[in-house]
Amino acid sequence: MKIYIPNLQDSLNKIGGGFTFLKNLYKGLNGKVQFVNNWIDCDIIFIFGITTINKGEVYNAINAGKKLVLRVDNKLCYN
To answer: So where are the chain's domains?
Structure first.
């Protein structure tokens, strides 16, 4: 499975609830899935915080049929 997380590398060094969630998720999945650097190459886009994304990028990915998983206050929502 290929997962795209917008701003992944920049976000791993930040502090806060969503960033801590992301670090734990990354540690848990690293080596079990492939993290890719763009939405074109992914199977799933994982958004851990709404402020970390580019709206146009997400619209384009959804229109291209990519699956979207959104973390909202420790809940997961998906399409």
So the answer is: 2-78
What is the secondary structure of 28-40 as a DSSP string? Answer: HHBTTBEEESSGG
pTM of the model: 0.81
DSSP E strands: which ranges in the chain?
2-4, 34-36, 44-47, 67-72, 75-78
Question: Which tens digit of pLDDT belongs to each residue from 9-39?
Answer: 778 778 877 788 888 889 999 999 999 999 9
CA pair distance 73, 48, nearest whole angstrom: 9
The angle at the Cα of 28, spanning 31 to 56, to the nearest 5 degrees, equals: 85
